Amino acid sequence: MKYLRLGSGQGQTFVLVFDTGDEVVSEIKRFAQAEEVRAARLTGVGGFSQAELGYFRRDVLSYESIPVTEQVELLSLIGNITVKDSEPLLHAHAIVGHRGGGTSGGHLIAATVWPTLELFVDVYPTELLKRQRRELGIATIDLG
Questions:
Q1: 3-state secondary structure of 127
Q2: Which of 35, 44, 127, 144 has its CA 20 to 30 A from that of 2?
Q3: By three-state DSSP, how is residue 137 classified?
Q4: DSSP letter assigned to residue 50
Q5: Burial of 59 (0-12, 13-18, 19+ CB in 10 A)
Q6: How buried is 130 (Cβ within 10 angstroms: 0-12 exposed, 13-18 middle, 19+ buried)?
Q7: Assigned CATH class of 2-132
Q8: How far apart are alpha carbons 134 and 122 in whole angstroms?
Q9: Could you tell me which of 139, 119, 131, 143 has the C-alpha nearest to residue 35?
Q10: Exposed / middle / buried, residue 106 (Cβ in 10 Å: 0-12, 13-18, 19+)
Q11: ∠69-71-74 over CA atoms, to 5°?
Q12: What does the angle CA 126 – CA 31 – CA 61 come to, to the nearest 5 degrees?
């Protein structure tokens, strides 16, 4: 993955361009660590050779895996980067299109890029912290 800062100042935008075979979640986390991202939103399009999405089951407070085992178009990727336990935390949802026009969607757990992924990341000059909510089974943004 390569990236470029598109502007300067308090709020910054980056474009991230992924290579075939890149693992999406780990590359976004690597970028966030390198650029010390503490609060951001992201959007993107591209394609995957395979992916794992998730559906959060509130009855068991964990994600049920939705495996995507074929080449798909990434129709939409939206999410945010915050901080949890002093580390960048990615929270993203994806909708993927299958051959023939069907779709799958859910929480992005993992994905391998094919042929490319193009993300725009808007970074904010603040820090958003996530705190674990035991009763929900997830971490949510804590605004104090």
A1: coil
A2: 127
A3: coil
A4: E
A5: exposed
A6: middle
A7: alpha beta
A8: 30
A9: 119
A10: buried
A11: 110
A12: 75
Tokens at residue 142, please? 């804590």
Its pTM stands at 0.94
Kindly give the confidence (pLDDT) of every residue in the chain, 144 residues in length, as a single tens digit, with 9 standing for 90 and above: 999 999 777 789 999 999 999 999 999 999 999 999 999 999 999 999 999 999 999 999 999 999 999 999 999 999 999 999 999 999 999 999 999 999 999 999 999 999 999 999 999 999 999 999 999 999 999 998
State the Cα–Cα distance between residues 4 and 17, nearest whole angstrom.
9
Structural domain spans, the chain: 2-132
Q: Which two tokens stand for residue 51?
A: 């992916």
